[in-house]
Write a structure and sequence with these properties.
By secondary structure, the chain is an alpha/beta fold. It has helices at 8-21, 28-41, 99-112, 115-122, 127-137; strands spanning 50-51, 54-57, 64-75, 83-93. The longest helix is centred in the N-terminal third of the chain and has 14 residues, at 8-21.
Length: 138
């Protein structure tokens, strides 16, 4: 869980570093560049307070993700005024066989991470409690 008011790009950087720490095939700098480039095109922040920065990567054979809960919220720098309360970094394999699953996961995230659920995550004492709450939503 990330607390405080960092900029959106800084939160994305922290999430990328967290994912890449355990993935030797991934270069954190390259992954960050791809995710930020994707964010420049179209913001992935929903009006629910969920931001889903994501990228499809050739180096992956499976899905990878990291979550930041931002109880104080951060401003979405692009587009209309939106406050980000949760950020779910989502990395998927670039192989065509994974594309449908990629879309299904994005849709599931948008369905689960509604404002009330995000608020309940923000009230968690630690990452373990938040993970348990997310697991109970599946």
């Amino acid at each position: 869980m990330v607390r405080g008011q960092p900029a959106k790009a800084e939160v994305i950087k922290r999430l990328v570093q967290a994912v890449c720490k355990n993935e030797p095939a991934l270069n954190a700098g390259e992954v960050l560049a791809q995710v930020l480039k994707r964010e420049e095109g179209i913001s992935t922040t929903l009006d629910t307070g969920l931001s889903i920065p994501h990228a499809r990567l050739e180096e992956l054979d499976g899905f990878k993700a990291a979550l930041a809960v931002l109880p104080s919220g951060i401003e979405e720098p692009a587009g209309p005024h939106l406050e980000i309360k949760a950020m779910f970094l989502f990395l998927s394999p670039a192989k065509q066989a994974f594309f449908q699953q990629h879309l299904q996961i994005l849709a599931s995230l948008a369905e689960v991470f509604k404002p009330d659920f995000i608020a309940s995550l923000a009230s968690c004492r630690d990452a373990q409690e938040a993970a348990q709450k997310i697991a109970s939503e599946e």
